[in-house]
Amino acid sequence: MLLRTFGGSVALAVVGLAAALLYGGPAGLAIAAILVVLEISLSFDNAVVNATVLERMSPFWQKLFLTLGVAIAVFGMRMLFPLAVVGITARLSPIEAVTLALDKGDPDVAGTYGFLLREAHPAIAAFGGIFLLMLFLDFVFEDREITWLSWLERPLARIGKLDQLSVVVAMITTTVVAYTLAPEGKTATVLVAGILGMVTYVLVNGLGELFEADDDGAEVQNLPGIHGGSERLERAVSRGTIGQLAVRTGKAAFFSFLYLELLDASFSFDGVIGAFAITADPIVMAIGLGVGALFVRSLTVFLVRQGTLSEFVYLEHGAQWAIGALAVLLLCTIRVEIPEIVTGLIGVGLIASALVSSIVRNRRSAGQDVNYREQLTPV
User: Fold this and answer.
1) Residues 325 and 350: beta-carbon distance below 8 Å
2) Mind listing the pLDDT tens digit for each residue in 111-162?
3) What is the total count of domains within the chain?
4) What distance separates the 2 farthest-apart alpha carbons in the chain?
5) Is the Cβ–Cβ distance between 198 and 134 less than 8 Å?
């Protein structure tokens, strides 16, 4: 299982790191390796959340996620996205943007590639932060049978019964952030970027649920939405209301795939921006972040094939709280610099805590089952 799932990523990692060595020497190799670790640590929660969507997609779409999806993640978000941002911000042609990137200028010097990308950071952070905030809010405002931080999740679920509360909270947050955290002269930019992040989430999420209902029929309309939790899927299985129909195909699968790519893009923002604190070389950056993205993709598929989310029921909760923390941190970086290690440690810490809580819960449940069977056994 491990070899089949991670074998391709390991092979491509070796090729990528070898290319970094040939291109930049030992220093290039070391920087690329650091970026691999940075990407994996920042995106571990992304893998857990992606798995909740991917487990309901057919094997064909899962494979597409690992092939075309990787190409989009590596070349689109880790290489072309920074070039596009710089080109649009500085009004440069694609060739001029590439030339500027290859100059490897100091990010602290005005006019360089890294400097221009950093100037675009408020808009990027607002878009990605609000997109992730919407994902988190839709999770915590939903009523659930199983809760992890019950003292907090249950009250939030109760107030979440108000229709469209997540949209209201996201809109208020966007306004507050734009007028309190945005740099001088960029209030409107941050406000528009935040609104676009919210609209993008609502649109893709809504289309995914719409086409899911069209493809699957009325029988599965009450199953998890595009961002739904694994526990709802599990309940559907136990009720016998879901079989082959629950596997997304056609238009529903396409929009789930699109959603996963947008989610990955939002998770990539902090990694791409943070990478400029380590290097301004776009080639080394693309190699390091790209290899990290490959492992995150493989980890997502591993979680699906192993049924990890069903076995460790709080894992998804930990990932969602990590998303909420990342959303807040992204929005805060509009005004202040936050070290990437802080972002990574918070995410990994929340997921690790959820994993430990799941293990404790499983052991407690196993102990209760043993005691129950002993009570039923005649003396």
Assistant:
1) yes
2) 777 788 778 888 888 888 898 899 889 889 988 888 898 889 999 999 988 8
3) 1
4) 84
5) yes
| Tokens 């839709």, residue located | 138
User: Model's pTM, two decimal places?
Assistant: 0.70
Contact 241, 219 (CB under 8 A): yes
What residues have CB less than 8 Å from 230, skipping those under 6 apart? 52, 55, 224, 309, 310, 313, 316
**Which residues have a Cβ under 8 Å from the Cβ of 73 and sit 6 or more positions away?**
261, 264, 268, 290, 293, 297
Concatenate the DSSP letters of all residues of 39-94 into one string: HHHHHHHHHHHHHHHHTTB-HHHHHHHHHHHHHIIIIIIIIIHHHHHHHHHHT--H
Work out the burial of residue 202: count CB atoms within 10 Å of its CB; fewer than 13 is exposed, 13-18 middle, 19 or more buried. middle
* Contact partners, residue 355, CB within 8 Å, separation at least 6: 312, 314, 315, 318
Query: Would 41 be classed as within a structural domain?
Result: yes
CB proximity list for 213: less than 8 A, separation 6 or greater: 220, 221
Asked if 147 and 317 count as a contact pair (C-beta separation under 8 A), the reply is yes
Asked if the structure places residue 376 within a domain, the reply is no
Residues 315-330: b if buried by 16+ CB within 10 A, e if exposed: bbbbbbbbbbbbbbbb
At 24 the three-state DSSP class reads: helix
CA distance 146 to 297: 27
| Residue at 287 is within a domain | yes
Task: Read off the pLDDT of each residue in 59-74 and give the average, rounded to a whole number.
Answer: 76
DSSP state of 183: P
| C-beta atoms surrounding 373 within 10 Å | 9
**Where residue 214 falls among pLDDT bands split at 50, 70, 90?**
low
Q: Is residue 378 part of a domain?
A: no
Per the CB < 8 A criterion, the answer to whether 177 and 190 are in contact is yes
Distance from first CA to last CA of the chain, Å, rounded? Answer: 44
- Residue 31 belongs to domain spanning: 2-368
Q: Are 42 and 344 in contact (CB under 8 A)?
A: yes
